[in-house]
Design goal:
Order of helices and strands: HHEEHEEHEEHHH
Structural class: alpha+beta
Low-confidence stretches: none
Number of helices: 7
Mean pLDDT: 77
Radius of gyration: 43 Å
Helix content: 40-55%
Distance between the termini: 71 Å
Strand content: 15-25%
Shape: elongated
Number of strands: 6
Length: 227
Amino acid sequence: MSNRATRAFIADIAGQFGRFLLLAGLILPGFQVYDLMTTKNVVASVVDVKPLCQKQSCNLGKCRWRKIQCDAMPALEAAGTQVRSRPYAKLQFVDSKGREREKWVSFSKLEIDRAEIGDHVTVVYRGNGRPYVARPFSWPLAGLGFSISFGGLVLLAGARNWRRAATAEPDGARWPATPRYEHARHEEMKLATTTALHAVPASGAAGPARYQPQRVGAVQRNRGWFG
């Protein structure tokens, strides 16, 4: 593969990966901005803490986690069933219309490691029936997303430069687009010509015959006059 083809190939791969990073990096800040514009801030109280126990149930190649009683986890785990336990906190808060709301939220979504009854957590909520509850806008998460997108932009810029260099750089081949045997034949002819020009005859050997003009008289030169 020539230099130009290699640069073009690298540019294509870098361009595709750069576009993927650019779009993927905007997902985190996009969700953060959406929550910021559509939710309301509130201070919620933790009124209960308990684990949510689940088992993995698979059917036709599709697996889902289903809620189970935590007391059944040891028996299911001994039978080879995949089980898990995730801590949840029951939050209670009053919405903007003065209604008391409750919502179970996982510790991971609240970005906490532990919670006790009576703790207060600042959250955002959205919705009337079963409200969506999450942590407020997080600059670290948004910054992580923007960093990923910036990396994608760097790759896209590099891909554009590589593609431009591949277009400007001539092909690495010394000869026009002809079969390889034509190149080899040209080299052989060139070598044979060079050898013949620089060949020196051995001592006593007759050199290459040279053209010797024959001397003729005036009558022979003008022989055509009488023809």
